[in-house]
Amino acid sequence: MAWADIDPGTSPPEMAIGAVRSEYELCKAIPGCNIGRDDIWRVPLTWAAWVAFSCIWQRQPVDVRPPLAEWAQRAWSDTRARLADRDALDASDPELISELSALDSRSPGLSLVPVQRGAVQWLARWRRDVLADARGNGKTPPLIRAMQVLAQTGEAFPALVTCPDSAPLSWQRKLAAWAPEIRTVIIGGPKKKREQAIAALAAGDADVGIIVWSNVRMHTRLAAYPGQAFVRCDAHGGKAGSKPSVCEVHDKEFQGFRLRLVIADEAHRMADARSKQTRALWHLMHHAETAWPVTGTLTTNDVGNLWPVLHGLDPRAWPSRSKYLDLYADQESAWSHKGVKILGLRRDTEPWFRLAVEPYFRRIPREIARAGQPGLAPPEFRYPQMTPKHAASYKSIMDQGLLELRRDTIVTPSALVKFTRLCQLAQAMFRVEDGEDPYGFSTENVRLCLPSPKVDDLMEFLAAEPGQWIVAATSPQLTGLAEGKLHDAGIPYSKIIGGMNHEAKDAAALAFQRGEARVIFITGAGSESIDLEKAQGVYWMQPDPSFTMREQMTGRADRWGQQQEVRQVWALTPGTTDIRLYQLGLDKEERHREITRDPQMLEWLMSAQAGEIIEEDHDTASTTPHASDAG
């Protein structure tokens, strides 16, 4: 019979598994499990590894030795405590509640509500966990208060906040309001200025550094990831003459001191495990005592997007993305998704997935955290019509593209170009201009131009609807056409698009909040970490299939303290790609809800039966739906 035990003398501890050859495939399926020269399989001993082992070996006899069994009992006790804190609607520690009340008294007019106090307890108690509350719940104040709690024992600083490039000044203002004693420095601007800011953080002249995502990798080593080669200087085996400044294994500014706390704001940006941005955050998180990824959008497309965040929190527990997906994800072959398409969670292992993963993230649905406050209104649809000439151009390209797709066995470059043209025509007419590529060769540039059914509909909409509006689009060219119309009509507007620095983006947001602009145009460059609760709602000039983009964009207006329901107005050109692109986003929303389970949480809260009381047997009673689901 196979056996499992704690390998004596290992620190940190490892689980050892003895198995016959016919059982090797079971051992291989455990993420991070490898065989040694002594034919014993070993894996870092973590809660996630224990859950994977229990799942995979559940139908195979195995002798779990007493040391491992005792460890598992202690780990389960800790996990139950984490699950209780995960869903707590208030803090339960009297000392913490008293401390938070004292901190609230130092920031007049600002105080946490019970759900936010529960978030502080979660963050401060468990240290390496995700705050994944739904958008608009008010995640920043609990993060600041938790930072202050750690500062009381000298465990918070130096700290680093990584955020989108629209948010550094907003973070600085919120820290100043909620915790005026905390000294901040923005790590931005030219390289020399960033280095000086990091030096101030290292020297103790600032407590918290605030840096945008794209700049992090410029100032730290990267963590390794299979298949992703490092750029190396000549001292580390690179090309002769290669400079340390470009080396990704060379110690850089952040390696000159130890960050005690790393906050990764909008942590869904870590979804691509291969990106240098993600690997830079990994290195900083792995070497910090406390790490708090923060996002209301845990998955951008599927369950695979959650793994990079988990790996950043605990690389011993989540060592292998491929084994994680094999164990927990329902997959199928698909050439368009790098060989594999993730369909959702495997139903046979889903309870084990929840048992392993849910202790890492706290998420309170907005309906609970903001009970009684207005939320999102149901989607509204407007269907602007193309002119006959415009519609004829669309149909001609569509017919050609469909003919190619039905004739060829693969998607040709020509068919992809036609799909792109259809997406553009659904927004506006276009013209083709001659141009040159960077190498001097002739090329064609496609420019959107009037007439545009979307721009015409926006003007009609603004003429009929009062108030301030966020206008969302993916194409800066389309927003440019709309800007011209608004200018001619004397309608004040601001915009947040790619190419603007963080000061300009912040100024645009403040202009809208002060009522100086009736419209703010936002592309993906401004869809995160901006407070625009003055908006009546979001007018979508273009459908975006990205669930992340939709969730984040509506979250600019759907925020704590809003005074009315946030409207969602979709302008979709009928009979075009607009219709299908909108539907694609709904599929991704379903996969997101599969992980967060907001409806199940609400159902559990509402389902108390007549006469139901709290069970006193804390060793066996389940206090949350999450603990019981995994058995």
Short description:
With 631 residues, this protein is an alpha/beta fold.
Overall, the morphology is globular
Strand order of the largest sheet: 15-22-21-18-20-19
Based on secondary structure, the structural category is alpha/beta
Strand content: 15-25%
Number of domains: 4
Number of helices: 23
The CATH topology name of the largest domain reads: Rossmann fold
Based on CA atoms alone, the radius of gyration comes out at 26 Å
Largest sheet: 6 strands, parallel
CATH superfamily of the largest domain: Tandem AAA-ATPase domain
The low-confidence parts are: 616-631
Count of β-strands: 22
End-to-end C-alpha gap: 25 Å
What is the average of the pLDDT values?
88
Q: Classify the helix fraction into a percent range.
A: 40-55%
Tell me the CATH architecture of the largest domain: 3-Layer(aba) Sandwich
Q: Briefly, what CATH class of the largest domain? A: Alpha Beta
Write the layout of secondary structure elements.
Blueprint: E1 2-6, E2 14-18, H1 24-28, E3 34-35, E4 41-44, H2 47-56, E5 62-64, H3 66-86, H4 94-105, H5 114-126, E6 130-131, H6 140-152, E7 159-163, H7 168-178, E8 184-187, H8 191-203, E9 208-212, H9 213-216, E10 261-265, H10 276-286, E11 290-294, H11 307-313, H12 321-328, E12 329-334, E13 339-345, H13 350-357, E14 361-362, H14 366-369, E15 376-382, H15 388-407, H16 413-425, E16 429-436, E17 442-449, H17 453-464, E18 469-472, H18 476-489, E19 493-496, H19 502-513, E20 519-522, E21 537-540, H20 547-554, E22 566-571, H21 577-596, H22 598-606, H23 625-629
Parallel strand pairs: 1-5, 6-14, 7-9, 7-10, 8-9, 10-11, 15-22, 18-20, 18-21, 19-20, 21-22
Antiparallel strand pairs: 1-2, 2-4, 3-4, 12-13, 16-17
Helix pairs in contact: 2-13, 5-6, 6-7, 10-11, 15-16, 17-18
